[in-house]
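User: Run a structure prediction on this.
Assistant: Running it now.
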Amino acid sequence: MRTDTDIGATVLGYPRFGPQRELKWAVESYWSGSIDQTELEGRAATLRADTWREMADGRLDTIPGNTFSYYDHVLDTAWMLGAVPPRFSDLGLAPLDTYFAMARGRASVPALEMTKWFDTNYHYLVPELGPDTSFTLDVTKPVGEYREAVAQGIATRPVILGPVSFLLLSKPHAGAPQGWDPLDLLEPLLDTYDHLLTELAEEGVAWVQLDEPCLVEDRSPGELEAVTACYGRLGSLEKRPKILVATYFGTPGPALPHLATAPIEGIALDLVTTEPTGVALVAHDLADKIVVAGVVDGRNVWRTDLDTALKKVVPLLGLAGSVALSSSCSLLHVPYDADAETDIDPEVRSWLAFARQKLAEIVVLQKALTDGPDSVADEVGAARSVVERRLGSSRLRNAAVRERLEGLAGSRPSRGAYRTRLSEQRSLGLPVLPTTTIGSYPQTREIRRLRSDFASRKVEREEYESVMRAEIESVIRLQEEIGLDVLVHGEPERNDMVQYFAEQLDGYVATQHGWVQSYGSRGVRPPILFGDVSRPSPMTVEWSQYAQSLTNRPVKGMLTGPVTMLAWSFVRDDQPLAETANQVALALRDETVDLEEAGLRVIQVDEPALRELLPLREVDRASYLDWAVASFRLATSGVSDSVQIHTHMCYGEFSDIIAAIEKMDVDVISLEASRSQMGVLDDLDGSDFTRSVGPGVYDVHSPRVPTVEEMTNLLVKAVGAVGSERLWVNPDCGLKTRHYDEVVPALNNLVAAAAAIRGIQS
């Protein structure tokens, strides 16, 4: 029987969106005023209770708590610590509305910056700190949720972002002195964490999980010393729960000895991406620690090879005081239940494990570890058979695709020189500071319903295409009226920028219920790439050609790039990512050639995930960027020099990939920039980047409408950094999630701001 010194079978976190996106509907209903705070809190409590009960019914030994969030767990941590910038507290709103204002902004107040959570497609809100920040603990959420679970008969392990990672993920606020480092706040922050741990201990909490994912990145000696100071102090508290420090998304490497020698009880390690032999080489002494071995992949959907997972644990058995088994990271990054996907081909479905199936795998593995492999011989044998059938399936390989790629081996596709292309593209007739949008326009409830009815064959193709053409014409006319220079067709036919293409490519399957939280109330359904990828027929040409026929202004053909098609899918793990990326690139190459033949002179191939997939360790980055850039060039180099190639990236630091972006050989790149107040331009200023750039002047992830003055001020900064001759004017991202009553005034202001800067330049 497990004691309170054990952890046993567990997970580092669980999906919080709800199997039917219950969180989305509840939060958005509150935002719209359809329900009040009492109703929202009631629905949230039900979702939390269902989540704990599901994990308990899955026979986990210990269950994580405090993983629920109305929007984002980093935002929750900032709120718990009282790190609320004055511009939000000064609004005088109720606490919950202040919290949402930090995430979404208000009419006169911009939201916190949003960026990617390491190399995932989840987004977090970036805390703003300064030397004047004063931490004030509010334990309402972690203690309240612990009490809720106890009332159900479930004693949870509260999960809280660790102090070192909280500071490393934060940024100096606008008034902080130049060069000030958030780590300077470690001592006062630890005062607050001391208080937090004491409060949890008084509640009867046996274990607390402090997440330190920043430790899998390259860390300076000073940052590693901060780890030693942090956990030396917290571990020495007289009254506290047992501490499990969780690292994930890679190996903690040099940080591991600092944790191994700290007076804490447990360390969670991601053994999906870390070899246990590496743990043995780095760790000096784990004999007094529980090692929670993450041997079930928390980020992909394939059934676990239980034989291999058990072998990974063996080196730890003589190294650690005891070993517990877990997911490699929180299961936040996978859908709920593979059994719900009844529309997926049964053969492919048999290869899948979502969150619920992963719980069962972890329990089986823990039993094998505790009672011996013979105790679960049938389960391990069944898993072995599934893995063998998947890897041996003929559906994984397409000889024609492989032969075509072999024929390109050793070549580096390219177009003419950039300066030559600029000359060719002057025929587009664009003004200085051309205005455009990123791709999608708001999708009305009627459009979404029609698309769903067509997919389920409730609507005939003729009716569907008629309505879609009318919507495209409406979007074209709106853009002409607003005065945009390069138009888009609005993408009413698209459910998602990856899923839409995956549904038309061989080698992919799409889910019906596989929702994963991306940020706040926004969810995505990542498709599953299981085999060689090919394009049976054109995917976007008909709609783009129709849009171009409606106007004399250039219309952009809109595609999703090969790296993003991988990053935002669940991808096969039986071959290198570079090979899979090139297969997708070939399909996109055929599409770009067809778009040019259909009369499109501007084609945007979005790669918002290029920075996202960048390996967390510097040593691994060059090889990744080499194949990522090569796959993009393969996709885009089939068109003539007169075709202007755009790409789009969002929410990330770009300083370490500027050279790679230059090598992508695009003509124009648009970047998220408004929430960071054009901070991305610091990466471009002084670099060798020569291409045209559109730093976003309008934050589309907030409902607020920025003024002409705000956008003009941002453009003044942009002109100073890159010059007006290379500058485009555009929003941060697509407009799909916004409403027209927000979009129209914002775009009118955008065009007015561009005109104002043109006037200054003239």
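The chain has 28 helices and 21 strands.
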